[in-house]
Design a protein that fits this description.
20 strands; 6-stranded antiparallel barrel; 4 helices; conserved putative lor/sdh protein from methanococcus maripaludis s2 fold; 4-stranded antiparallel sheet; alpha+beta; about 30% strand
Length: about 425
Amino acid sequence: MKEREKEENRINRRIRFGSAVILLFLLLYIPSFVFWIYGKNISIDILRMGEIEESVTVDALIVRNETVVNSPVDGIIIKNIEEGEKIRGGSTIATVLNKSSEKLLDDLKALDLRIIEAQREKAKNDVFFLEDIKDIDEKIEDRLMSVIAQADSNNISEVKNIKKDVDELIQKKATITGDLSISDAHINSLKAEKKLLQEGINQNKSSIVSDAPGIISYAVDGCESFLNQDAISSLTPKDINNIKPQNTVRKMDDLDVECNKPVVKVISGIDYYIVFAIDKKETEEFKVEDSLSLRINDINKIIDGTVVHKSDEIDGKFVIAVKTDKAMSDTATLRNINVDLIKNCYSGLVVPVKSLIDIDMTAMTAKIGLVRAQRVEFIPVKIVGRNSEFAIIDNVDKSYYAGDATSHPSISLYKSYIVNPKNIEEGQIVN
């Protein structure tokens, strides 16, 4: 009987010991297992300063006051004024050479190359021969000094020999300077030939002159005759979507021109218009005489303007025109553009919108999961501003806690937060 009791006691002690070991194992392993499963793959970032924009992206038309200038003859255009440059009234925009001048123009280019080559060769020879001439002059001077010395000694025969040497040196110098004169004569002959060619070209050219001041553009797109300031009030959303540059009009880099066909346009005035159609739900913030910032994505520039026209509702949309005097030269070649209408700009602590939970856009509040001592703690924050992707946040006002005098956690630069708090719980362990 006693033996049985002793055996049972030993078994019980083993069971208790095993249970204690298992319990200790669970206490140590389970938190590590939970951390490994749930904490290892949680994405964490730190709060950073940044800027965001609240904007709407639309397609738009550029409307300007433009005058198209036609070519007076068939031929080739030579631009006196480049794309986007400003001119005064009465300035020559370009020169048109008729077809008979094409060969003369090619000959002129070839002649210019020959003149440049001849001048380069002459400059090279000048350096070489001038050293020889300097050396000859020094020898002549030295021999003349010898003549004086020999004359004082009445050494007539030696004087004759020296005179012969001097004559040879003078002849050698004359030969060299004669070669240089030949080079000059050749260059002058080429220049005279060039002058004759230029006179022939001038007899076969016509000038394109601007009657008024403005900005020059060779991108004539066929819309100049009907897209102007007076047309803005009659434009519809359908017009804005359908109006495109016409393919039948000459391209900007085409040098061949035809008589009485468009060559260039002069953009007059100091401002132009950006016209777009926008959905009714977006138009509340756009009122006539309001200032507006736009980013023209085609040239990546932000400009300021003023809303000068807002149409009545047309098929659920409104046509809005913004007047601006910025980037006029940069947009001279453009007609259809893509712009961001910048409603608001915000700066501060920036986080992805997906990092916020319990978003209340009426109260402009939300919660963010901060990481403190390797645990998640969701705290309330104020939404300063947001767009579709990011939000600028700040600490909530003290009134949010309704008189609670206890201290509350806050957000600040470089604090860690949960990037995607979906399925994350308060107090969860994270790395």
